[in-house]
Amino acid sequence: MKGLALLALFAGLPLATEPQKKPDEPAPQKTDQASLTPFKTDAPLVTGIVQIKRVYVEPLAGNDTAEAIRQLLIGSLQKSHLFVLTDNPDRADAILRGAANDKDYTDAFDSQEGLNAHANGGAYSGSSSSRSRSAGAYTGLSVGESESHHIRERKHEAYATVRLCNRDGDVLWATTQESHGAKFRGASEDVAEKVAHQLRLDYFKAIPLPAGKPQ
């Protein structure tokens, strides 16, 4: 009987290891770190390319290939590691705008080669006596050869003329690049690489030297 009473007593007590249930709470929401620092219109105005932190590449003017060149430009600038590339123009402190085009055309070459030689010779002798005598000789040589060539070659030509502008529209940097293609790159890709390469060169040239160092 005593054992039964003890079992009944412990049966009415909650287990110490059982966690207490709490009211349902909403799960914590993940926040994008970039959204915590929205673009501020009162941010300092950049006046040089070395002050640029974030760039938006605007749709370029041109034919149907302009958008493809824009995407290649974004990729080339991203690989340069100079700026953060953004798809939100409101968060950028500089905008890359301009025009680009990639067109194909056909080059035609016409050439003609010829070899001609012409030679003539003759000899004659005679007498006016009753016994007339005459002799003559003639020789001639004529050689002719001509050859013509007509070559048609299909080519691509791409160009991009772009500029970096700050929020007020002041031009901070500009370049124009063109290409007929490279050994391992098409014309459009090569133009995008040339723009990024030129920007990288000009960027490091614009970095001020520490005080006391020769120019």
Topology readout:
Blueprint: H1 2-11, E1 54-57, H2 66-80, E2 84-85, E3 94-126, E4 134-165, E5 171-179, H3 187-206
Parallel strand pairs: 1-2, 1-3
Antiparallel strand pairs: 3-4, 4-5
Helix pairs in contact: 2-3
Give a short overview.
By secondary structure, the protein is an alpha/beta fold. The chain contains 3 helices and 5 strands.
CATH class of the domain at 43-105 and 158-206: Alpha Beta
CATH architecture of the domain at 43-105 and 158-206: 3-Layer(aba) Sandwich
Radius of gyration: 42 Å
Give the oligomer, counting copies of the same chain as homo and different chains as hetero.
single chain
Number of helical segments with 4 or more residues: 3
Query: Could you list the spans in which at least 5 consecutive residues all have pLDDT below 50?
Result: 13-19, 30-40
> What is the general shape?
elongated
Average pLDDT value?
Answer: 76
- The CATH topology label of the domain at 43-105 and 158-206 is Rossmann fold
Strand order of the largest sheet: 2-1-3-4-5
Task: State the end-to-end CA separation.
Answer: 102 Å
**Strand residue content:** 35-45%
Report the helical percentage: 10-25%
Topology pattern, helix = H, strand = E: HEHEEEEH
Category by helix and strand content? alpha/beta
State the major sheet: 5 strands, mixed
Number of strands: 5
Describe this entry's structure for a reader.
Helix content is 21%, strand content 37%. With 215 residues, the protein is an alpha/beta fold. It has a domain at 43-105 and 158-206: 3-Layer(aba) Sandwich (Rossmann fold). It has a five-stranded mixed sheet. Helix 2 (66-80) crosses helix 3. The N and C termini lie far apart (102 Å). 17% of the residues are buried. The model is unreliable at 13-19 and 30-40 (pLDDT under 50).
